[in-house]
Amino acid sequence: MTAVHEEPTATDLTAAEPDAPVAEKTAPAEPLLNHRDDEIELIPPESLTAKLTGMYTFLPINGAAFVMQVMHPVIGDVVGKYSVFRTDPVGRAIRSADSVLRWTYGGQEALEEGKRLRKLHQPLQMRNAEGKHISALNPEAYAWVIATAFPTIETAAPLVLGRHFTLDERKELLRDNRRIAKIVQVPMKGYPETLEEFDEYFDDFIENKLVRHPVALELIDQMRAAPVIPKSVPKALRPAVKKVAATASVPFQNFNYLTTVGVMDPRVREILGLTWTDAEQRHLERIHRNLRFAYRTLPERLTYFPLAYHARRHHDAIQAMKVREQASAAYQYSSTKG
Q1: How many folded domains does the chain comprise?
Q2: Domain range for residue 197?
Q3: N or C: which end of the chain has fewer CB within 10 A?
Q4: pTM of the model
C-alpha cells in the first residue's frame, strides 16, 4: 500500500525547498524504473494473497501497515508534507485500496499501475527538519512501504482465518510480497528473500529505524475522531450531518482502531506509546469471529471488493473450461495422435 499516493501541485514542489536549486527540486536521485516487464511475475490468481487481499476486512489490516510506514522518518515527513490524509481520509483510503487491488488482480494493468506509482512519487522531494534533502523514492523507505504488508497479514491471520499460517503459506506470502515489490518498482537490493532474512530485516527496522513520528500519532487519533464532512454539504446542514456522522461512525471507528492497533507488533505499539489490554484483544477476536462466520455464509459478491470478486470468478471460469477440455473427445483424439 502506498504511503503518499497523492498528486503534488507545482506550488507544493516549489514550496518544499525554497532555497534549493531547481534541479534538486525536480530531479530524482533514484532511477524511475528498476525492473523490465519481462522480469516481473504477476500474483497467481489461485494464491493465498489473491484470496486475502480482496476481502473488505483487509482494509483496516492495511491501516496497521500504513501506520508502520509513516514511522519511517522519510515516509512520515513526506506524507506529512504532501498527503491529503487530513482533509480527505476516506478518499485517500479508497484510492490506495484501488492501487493495491490493481497490483493483485489487474493482470497486465498491475505493471502499468506500478510504473504510475513510481512516477507519481518521483517529484515528492523536500528538506526535513534537519535541512537534509529527502525523497519519496528513497530506496530504503520505498521498500519499507511494501515490506510492511507481510508482518501485518501474518499477525492478522488468526483474525481473518481463525488460525496461524503454515510454514509453506508464510513462504508463499513472502514470495508474493516480493512479486508486488517488483510490480511497484522497488529496488530489490537488500530486500529479504527468506523468512529468516525478513525477521532480521523487520527487527532492524523496529530496533534502529522506526520512530514515534507525529504523522503516525495523527493517524491513530484520526481513527477515533469524527469523520470529516465533505465541503459539498450546505453550511446550514453541516452541524446536523456532523452529529449524525459522528454517532453512526462509532462502530466502524472502534473496529478500525482495534484492528489497526491489535495487529501491530507489540514493539511497534511500544514505540508509539499505545496500550493494549486483554479486554481489547478479546473484543477484537469477538468481532472477527463474527466476520469469519459472515464470510462463510455470505456470497463473495458481498464480501469482496468488486475487482477482486470478478477477477476470482474469471479465474474460476477459465479453470472450469480447462476441466471440460480434458474430457472432450477432440482433446482425447489430439492427445493420442500426438
Answers
A1: 1
A2: 10-305
A3: C
A4: 0.84
